[in-house]
Amino acid sequence: MIKVNVMYPYSEGARFDHVYYRDRHMPMVKARLGRACTYYTVEKGLAGRGPGAPPAFVAMCAFICDSVEGYKAAFQEHGAEILGDIGNYTDIAPVIQISEVVVERSDRARTGSSPTTFGYRIGLSESG
Amino acid sequence: MIKVNVMYPYSEGARFDHVYYRDRHMPMVKARLGRACTYYTVEKGLAGRGPGAPPAFVAMCAFICDSVEGYKAAFQEHGAEILGDIGNYTDIAPVIQISEVVVERSDRARTGSSPTTFGYRIGLSESG
Q1: Is the CB of B102 less than 8 angstroms away from the CB of A22?
Q2: Residue B118's closest chain A neighbor by CA?
Q3: Which of A65, A46, A128 has the alpha carbon at shortest distance from B96?
Q4: Model-level pTM?
């Protein structure tokens, strides 16, 4: 399992339309990636380390995918459309990196691997 | 729901013990944060944007929490121990940022909010 991180560096006064990003851009990208991407995440930077410090990144997203090859093939096919949409929400050039998922989430048994079988999951969900 | 990102910048030859980080440091931090943290994620940087480009960050983790206040209170109590453990896996100073979770994961209905009730979840899980 890999993670493609797209991170938009913060700068004072720079434009970033978080609503467009969440409601238009990200769903469009996911539709183009299809099964090459299992799911994506989106976040909005709030603060850095010290009091009053701005976040390093004004926004970030990540595409969780089974493989780099699958992601790249899908992106290659739709890259022009995806890249062409960026100007609709920002002028910031993102930092992009590909990571290996070491722990997908610590509260679930599955670590860095995809489910491979159909099955039923019955569980008690508890408030946090 | 907020996300505390800890991101270790990549530099050629810098020490980072990914095994210690995954097996020792992160579980210890989670144990100290307790219910202040719902779960954490860990990743290992593989590559940057272009061919042969190194990743911006050699490793990253994130703590998904209900609130900044809860996280900070727990961290304040155990900060010395947590920070004191860093030298066991790296000398790299991390970039830290707090983000608002906008989309926790795109394939689940819950978006940026915690479950608040006990209940049963019955679902069909499909292979990816």
Answers
A1: yes
A2: A126
A3: A46
A4: 0.85
